[in-house]
Design a protein that fits this description.
With 102 residues, this protein is α+β, with helices and mostly antiparallel strands. It has two helices and four strands, in the order ααββββ. The protein is 25% helix and 38% strand. It is elongated.
Length: 102
């Protein structure tokens, strides 16, 4: 992983944690997804809901014509889980037998 990629991941994680409280949950999820993707994402949908301190944010978009989707789970505004629902090119889902696409 290149130095700039590591820096962007750190920025995304900082936004997802306690430091980015003035940014909505969906925006924080989009920042983490963008930092984790090997190439730029075009985020076209962001939505979030909170109930009893538990938040769920979902984002969707595209990367080079491929649909991308992710979800983030928050507990009292702290990111506790990030998962690709439809990963970008070059990212394999955990347990997937499919090789990453170029």
């Amino acid at each position: 992983m290149s130095g700039s990629r590591i820096a962007w991941v750190a920025v995304g994680l900082a936004l997802a944690g306690c430091g980015g409280r003035d940014i909505g949950l969906a925006d924080r999820c989009a920042a983490v997804a963008s930092a984790a993707a090997p190439e730029d994402l075009d985020i076209t949908m962001r939505r979030a809901s909170v109930r009893d301190g538990a938040g769920l944010a979902e984002i969707a978009g595209a990367q080079r014509g491929t649909t991308v989707a992710a979800e983030c789970r928050f507990q009292h505004e702290v990111l506790i889980s990030f998962r690709w629902r439809q990963p970008p090119l070059g990212v394999a889902l955990s347990g997937s037998s499919e090789p990453p696409q170029p």
